[in-house]
């Protein structure tokens, strides 16, 4: 029986995917896996028996990835599960910025008691006149799960779409409409676009990536959209550009003390993935990731260890080794099996930065003495017996 703990409420649709071999526990110190959405985990020291954390969402800035990696705890996320919800919100944001829909709604609310509202609105609507998306140029920075959906949908809106992603995957490229202009020079996108939307993960390398210099290269009157994270933009530079007339509007899903209420800024309260469907999709994916890891040792969508899969074990035993990615480590643990007279029937080793993961299927018995020798290898973080 495996036990899991939820740090945040998760969709019951997802939790119902757990088989009868799983039990929910309210004690975080008595679980094999933790499921989380937005709870901060940097100050949480997980119990030794906890081997996995699954984030029901894409961003993992609330989780100490390296701290958990060195304890042999695999951290998963659910990329793409909430992509459609975010995509739809991006288009709502573009329409709100283009046509002052919010101002019009507020006018109707303020004039609800006016007996002549039907007549007066014909005069009032002039101040809310906007522009259409059709025929405008959209720049999409980041063509992952969300970015490619935004780009493809914009094509159907009749927009001319420019996409930039130096790390574009083969799968993403296949899924991208051939009508999207894939540019290799971000300057081309900045200069051409009427709207620019950014869809990149929050990493050290992406913090503040939309700089003052980049904004200066943009078209006058550009509308900027931020449905990634606030610190990806130099927001003071954005406000300065609004004041100078360079930027027409800035729509962000991450209000803070700098942007909330600022002139030319439209804030939404982190609604990007706040749909029933997105929450269900994320929970379902997180549960399946946890099940496959606990039962088979397979890793899919980890953010601190490499993805690695050997299917379902068909041999007598399987062991998972989580270790530092160093020269000579493979020789150390294979010699342990050799010295014990155990045949390695199959093995897969993958690395991600300084962390490595190995699955080994064996013909033989994993004795306590063998497991202890594996664990005493200097570079070894954790040894897990899968079968």
Number of strands: 16
| Number of alpha- plus pi-helical segments | 13
* Spatial order of strands in the largest sheet: 8-7-6-9-10-11-12
Based on secondary structure, the structural category is: alpha/beta
Overall body shape: elongated
> What are the low-pLDDT stretches, counting only 5+ consecutive residues below 50?
none
Rg calculated over all Cα atoms:
25 Å
What is the CA–CA distance across the termini?
14 Å
Helix content: 25-40%
Q: What do the pLDDT scores average to?
A: 95
Strand content: 15-25%
Write down the secondary-structure element order. Answer: EHEEEHEHHHEHEHEHEHEHEEHEHEEHE
Largest sheet: 7 strands, parallel
Describe the structure.
There is one protein chain. This protein is an alpha/beta fold and about 375 residues long. It is about 30% helix and about 20% strand. The protein has helices at about 10-15, 65-70, 85-100, 100-110, 115-125, 145-155, 170-175, 185-190, 210-215, 235-245, 275-295, 330-340, 370-375; strands spanning about 1-5, 20-25, 35, 50-55, 75, 135-140, 160-165, 180, 195-200, 220-225, 245-250, 265, 315-325, 345-350, 355-365, 380-385. A seven-stranded parallel beta sheet has the order 8-7-6-9-10-11-12, sandwiched between helices. Helix 3 (about 85-100) crosses helix 6. The protein is elongated and about 90 Å long. The model has no long low-confidence stretch (mean pLDDT about 95).
């Amino acid at each position: 029986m495996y036990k899991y703990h939820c740090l945040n409420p998760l969709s019951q649709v997802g939790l119902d995917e757990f088989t009868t071999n799983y039990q929910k526990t309210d004690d975080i110190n008595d679980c094999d896996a933790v499921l989380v959405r937005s709870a901060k985990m940097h100050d949480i020291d997980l119990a030794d028996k906890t081997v996995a954390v699954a984030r029901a969402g894409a961003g993992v800035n609330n989780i100490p990835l390296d701290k958990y990696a060195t304890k042999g705890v695999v951290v998963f996320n659910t990329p793409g599960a909430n992509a459609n919800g975010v995509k739809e919100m991006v288009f709502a944001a573009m329409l709100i910025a283009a046509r002052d829909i919010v101002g019009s709604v507020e006018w109707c609310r303020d004039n609800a008691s006016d007996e002549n509202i039907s007549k007066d609105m014909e005069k009032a609507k002039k101040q809310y006149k906007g522009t259409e998306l059709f025929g405008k140029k959209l720049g999409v920075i980041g063509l992952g799960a969300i970015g490619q959906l935004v780009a493809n949908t914009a094509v159907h809106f009749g927009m001319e779409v420019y996409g930039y992603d130096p790390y574009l995957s083969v799968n993403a490229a296949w899924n991208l409409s051939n009508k999207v202009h894939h540019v290799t020079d971000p300057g081309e996108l900045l200069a051409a676009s009427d709207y620019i939307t950014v869809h990149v993960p929050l990493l050290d390398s992406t913090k503040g990536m939309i700089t003052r210099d980049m904004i200066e290269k943009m078209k006058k009157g550009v509308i900027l959209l931020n449905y990634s994270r606030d610190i990806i933009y130099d927001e003071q530079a954005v406000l300065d550009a609004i004041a100078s007339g360079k930027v027409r509007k800035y729509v962000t899903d991450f209000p803070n003390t700098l942007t909330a209420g600022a002139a030319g800024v439209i804030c939404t309260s982190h609604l990007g993935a706040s749909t029933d469907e997105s929450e269900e999709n994320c929970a379902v994916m997180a549960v399946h990731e946890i099940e496959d890891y606990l039962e088979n040792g397979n890793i899919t969508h980890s953010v601190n260890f490499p993805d690695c899969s050997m299917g379902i074990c068909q041999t007598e035993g399987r062991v998972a080794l989580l270790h530092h990615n160093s020269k000579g480590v493979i020789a150390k643990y294979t010699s342990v099996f050799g010295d014990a007279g155990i045949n390695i029937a199959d093995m897969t080793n993958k690395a991600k930065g300084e962390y490595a993961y190995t699955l080994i299927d064996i013909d033989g018995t994993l004795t306590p003495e063998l497991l202890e020798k594996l664990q005493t290898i200097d570079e070894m973080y954790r040894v897990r017996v899968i079968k």
